[in-house]
Amino acid sequence: MKYDIMLANAMVLTPAGDILEGQNIAIKGNRSEKVTPDTLQPGSAEKQIDCRGKLVMPGMIDGHTHTSQQLLRGKLADEYPMIWTRFLVPFESTLTEEDVYYSALLYCIQAIRAGITGFAESGGRHMNMTANAVIQTGMRAAIARSMMDSGNSITKSMLEASDEAIEHNDELYDRFNGAGDGRVQVYYGMRQVMTCTPGFIEKIAQHAEERGTGIHAHLCEHRNEVSFCLEKYQMRPAAFLDTCGLLGPRLVTAHNVALSEHDITTLVDRKVKMIHCPYANLINHGFPKTPRILEAGGYVGLGSDGAAYNSVDLFEEMRTLRAALISASGLPVFDPEVMPVRTMLKMATQGGAAALGMEDSLGRIEEGCIADLITIDIMKPHIFPTNNYTTAIVDTVTAQDVCDSIIDGKLVMEDRMLKTVDEQAVMEECSRRMAEINRRL
């Protein structure tokens, strides 16, 4: 058999978090056909990458992001909550289709360079342009429209009638679901319980169920959301969404900070996919109960929440969450392993794969699984030598150490050179558009 790509002489991160040396990964189509220490014949692949001095791991998946917020970078520094009403809504409401397209291109460039091969977009305006950016750059994504039918004078610029909003999401699904050789999925987006009426939420659940696709929502991000639900519905947010038929394996919830013990039990029982955004949440809303969720058997992934707060870098998000939870939950009870390194890696890869509904075929390096892989240059003084490469990935590797990226079996970055997009041209255009947006605001 003639393979498409061969990663030869590699150190490989296994699904269990072990490191295997001297491995060869043969890719055919979009799958890893062989993962073996056996020497494969020279010339058995169209493209061969010598991975001596490199570690190969699954591409990471950003489980919750806002690609249209790239041009808001730096605006939220040292600001008080509520950021969403004071900054994000006015910003998003002024974006044009071209703004969203270039913002999404900029996100994809940064994500690929940081070892992210797929993401779950929680929504915004003009998501058709985000889909186009995903197709162009070769990334993988689950994209939703952020839908709201209720709010106040601040959020009215983003509101739609429920039937109109659903119709637009239906159109996005019909046009883009399965695009990019299957790399694009279209989900339904429910912004949050404070901006969606019960009847609207029920419609979202119904349309997603009919199409067999996912739903992306913000959940228990902050205490105001919990207070709102208790006052209006006499229920906490998770219980309220359950009465609307939204909780289930198709639902991806972002943040999950202000969860009660009963919330956790309910979400785990319903097999909801939960995403933490460590840096953004720690700045504004506090510590998630990650160890408790994992102990209960929940699905947990990591998200960047876009670039408004920070960079798009899941290596940094892993370190942030691990350090925070060890400090808050581990040290007081003498449990420094409250968030083990292997757990963090599973969250960044397999947890994110679950958010894309692909936990059986993505987020791991195994024969037959989808070939979304990255290589890391370990011959750097901050990495090499080390007694434990698994630990090094979380504790010392940075986004700048990612060398190559393969998505859906195709090489999209080689030796840190992107092959699908002119990044300098995108950066220049984004700089121009940021200035224009600031003038409009």
Q: Give the overall average pLDDT.
A: 93
**Helicity, in percent?**
25-40%
DSSP, total strands:
17
The CATH architecture term of the largest domain is Alpha-Beta Barrel
- Spatial gap, N to C terminus: 58 Å
Radius of gyration: 21 Å
Which structural class is indicated by helix and strand composition?
alpha/beta
Q: What name goes with the CATH superfamily of the largest domain? A: Metal-dependent hydrolases
What characteristic shape results from the CA principal axes?
globular
Give the uncertain stretches in residue-range form. none
Largest sheet: 9 strands, mixed
Work out the count of structural domains: 2
Our count of helices gives 14
Beta fraction: 15-25%
Report the CATH topology name of the largest domain: TIM Barrel
Layout of SSEs?
Elements lengths: L2 E11 L5 E10 L2 E6 L8 E6 L3 E5 L1 E6 L17 H11 L3 H17 L2 E6 L5 H11 L2 E8 L14 H15 L7 E7 L7 H14 L3 E5 L3 H11 L3 H7 L7 E5 L5 H9 L3 E4 L1 H7 L5 H6 L3 E4 L11 H17 L10 H15 L17 E5 L11 H7 L6 E6 L2 E5 L2 E2 L4 H18 L1
Helix pairs in contact: 2-3, 2-14, 4-5, 11-12, 12-13
Summarize the structure.
The chain has 441 residues and is α/β, with parallel strands linked by helices.
Question: How would you describe this protein?
Answer:
The protein is of the alpha/beta class and about 450 residues long. It folds into two domains: about 5-60 and about 360-420, Urease, subunit C, domain 1, CATH 2.30.40; about 60-355, Alpha-Beta Barrel (TIM Barrel). The protein contains 14 helices and 17 strands. Strands 1, 2, 3, 4, 5, 14, 15, 16 and 17 form a nine-stranded mixed beta sheet that branches. Helix 3 links the parallel strand 7 and strand 8. Helix 4 packs parallel to helix 5 (about 200-210). It is globular and about 65 Å long. It starts with a strand and ends with a helix. The mean pLDDT is about 95.
